[in-house]
Amino acid sequence: MTEKRLNTLKPGEHYTAQELDSFVSTTDVVLLSSNENQLFTEPDREYKVTMELDGFFEHSSEDGEKYFRDKKTYVVEKA
Q: Which superkingdom, per the lineage (predicted)?
Protein backbone atom coordinates (compact mmCIF):
# COMPACT_ATOMS: atom_id res chain seq x y z
CA MET A 1 0.00 0.00 0.00
CA THR A 2 1.40 3.39 -0.99
CA GLU A 3 1.39 6.04 1.71
CA LYS A 4 0.17 9.40 0.46
CA ARG A 5 2.19 12.44 1.49
CA LEU A 6 0.13 15.50 2.41
CA ASN A 7 1.27 19.01 1.41
CA THR A 8 -1.60 20.77 3.12
CA LEU A 9 -4.76 20.05 5.09
CA LYS A 10 -8.20 21.20 4.00
CA PRO A 11 -10.91 22.39 6.41
CA GLY A 12 -13.85 20.00 6.46
CA GLU A 13 -11.72 17.02 5.39
CA HIS A 14 -11.00 13.96 7.52
CA TYR A 15 -7.49 12.58 8.08
CA THR A 16 -6.19 9.67 10.12
CA ALA A 17 -3.86 10.30 13.05
CA GLN A 18 -1.15 8.53 11.06
CA GLU A 19 -1.59 10.97 8.14
CA LEU A 20 -1.49 13.94 10.54
CA ASP A 21 1.61 12.55 12.23
CA SER A 22 3.40 12.26 8.89
CA PHE A 23 2.24 15.76 7.91
CA VAL A 24 3.54 17.50 11.05
CA SER A 25 6.80 15.52 10.82
CA THR A 26 7.54 16.96 7.37
CA THR A 27 5.87 20.39 7.50
CA ASP A 28 6.46 23.49 9.64
CA VAL A 29 2.96 23.83 11.11
CA VAL A 30 1.08 23.95 14.41
CA LEU A 31 -1.67 21.40 15.03
CA LEU A 32 -4.24 22.16 17.73
CA SER A 33 -6.43 19.31 18.96
CA SER A 34 -9.26 19.00 21.45
CA ASN A 35 -7.99 15.46 22.07
CA GLU A 36 -5.27 16.73 24.45
CA ASN A 37 -2.05 14.71 24.22
CA GLN A 38 -3.74 11.65 22.69
CA LEU A 39 -3.73 12.86 19.08
CA PHE A 40 -1.24 10.27 17.82
CA THR A 41 -2.05 7.36 20.17
CA GLU A 42 -4.48 5.64 17.77
CA PRO A 43 -3.03 5.76 14.22
CA ASP A 44 -6.33 4.84 12.51
CA ARG A 45 -8.53 7.32 14.41
CA GLU A 46 -9.96 9.98 12.12
CA TYR A 47 -9.83 13.70 12.76
CA LYS A 48 -11.66 16.50 10.99
CA VAL A 49 -9.87 19.75 10.21
CA THR A 50 -12.23 22.41 11.52
CA MET A 51 -10.14 25.52 10.94
CA GLU A 52 -7.06 26.76 9.10
CA LEU A 53 -5.22 29.86 10.32
CA ASP A 54 -2.23 31.76 8.95
CA GLY A 55 -0.65 32.13 12.38
CA PHE A 56 -1.22 32.82 16.04
CA PHE A 57 -0.28 35.18 18.88
CA GLU A 58 2.09 33.97 21.54
CA HIS A 59 2.91 35.63 24.85
CA SER A 60 6.56 35.70 25.89
CA SER A 61 7.12 35.09 29.59
CA GLU A 62 10.65 36.51 29.18
CA ASP A 63 9.75 40.04 28.11
CA GLY A 64 5.96 40.13 28.61
CA GLU A 65 5.34 40.96 24.94
CA LYS A 66 2.90 39.32 22.55
CA TYR A 67 4.23 38.18 19.20
CA PHE A 68 2.42 37.07 16.08
CA ARG A 69 3.86 33.79 14.77
CA ASP A 70 3.44 33.55 11.02
CA LYS A 71 3.03 29.78 10.91
CA LYS A 72 0.20 27.79 9.31
CA THR A 73 -2.03 26.48 12.09
CA TYR A 74 -4.77 23.85 11.90
CA VAL A 75 -7.48 22.98 14.44
CA VAL A 76 -8.59 19.34 14.42
CA GLU A 77 -11.20 17.38 16.36
CA LYS A 78 -12.08 13.71 16.62
CA ALA A 79 -14.43 12.66 13.83
A: Bacteria
